[in-house]
Amino acid sequence: MTAHPHPAPNNEWDGRFWQAIAHGRLELQRCAECGTFRHPPGPVCARCGATSSEWVESAGTGEVWSYTVIHPPTLPAFRERTPYGAVVIRLDEGVFMVSNLVDTPVEQLATGVRVTVAISEVDDGVYLPLFREG
Ligand code: ZN
After folding, report:
1. Fold held by 59-134
2. What percentage of the chain exceeds 70 in pLDDT?
3. What is the 66 CA–ligand 1 centroid distance (Å)?
4. From ligand 1's centre to the CA of 122, what distance in Å?
5. DSSP line for the chain
6. Which residues have their alpha-adjacent CB atom under 5 A from ion ligand 1?
7. 23 has pLDDT over 70
8. What is the pLDDT of residue 4?
9. Residue 106 alpha carbon to ligand 1 centre in Å
10. What is the 112 CA–ligand 1 centroid distance (Å)?
11. Where are the CATH 2.40.50 domain residues in the chain?
């Protein structure tokens, strides 16, 4: 089996996000001025323009906002798992995150389903914030 692609943070904010995931925590960046959550993490608040921010642990709950089913051809690392669902999760903090659901067959994918984060080791030392129903 081809190795799973690794997250490749390319700035300090991405690095901070993935560091928390590797320690089993889903943390979100929040503007220290107006309290708006932002994801993907970055240097400036899109709402108020402030550059100060803090990191807080997410409740880890949300809903399936959208989804699609992936069929071949795809990257070699994902070929054996097709067909699989790619979902857009709207976390209760208001930010969106692309992920996968664990334990949900593709024919049962639906929008509006409540989900909880399930940080999973998908390859040796590779942790991703996946989600499961409930
Ligand atoms: Zn702000």
Report:
1. OB fold (Dihydrolipoamide Acetyltransferase, E2P) (2.40.50)
2. 99
3. 26
4. 34
5. -PPPPPP---SHHHHHHHHHHHTT--EEEEETTT--EESS--SS-TTT----EEEEE---EEEEEEEEEE-SS--HHHHTT-SEEEEEEEETTS-EEEE-BSS--GGG--TT-EEEEEEEEEETTEEEEEEEE-
6. 31, 33-34, 36, 45, 47-48, 50
7. yes
8. 83
9. 37
10. 28
11. 59-134
Q: How far is the CA of 37 from the centre of ligand 1 (A)?
A: 8
- pLDDT of 1 strictly over 70: no
pTM of the model: 0.93
58 Cα–ligand 1 center, Å: 18
Instruction: Report percent pLDDT > 90 for the chain.
Output: 88
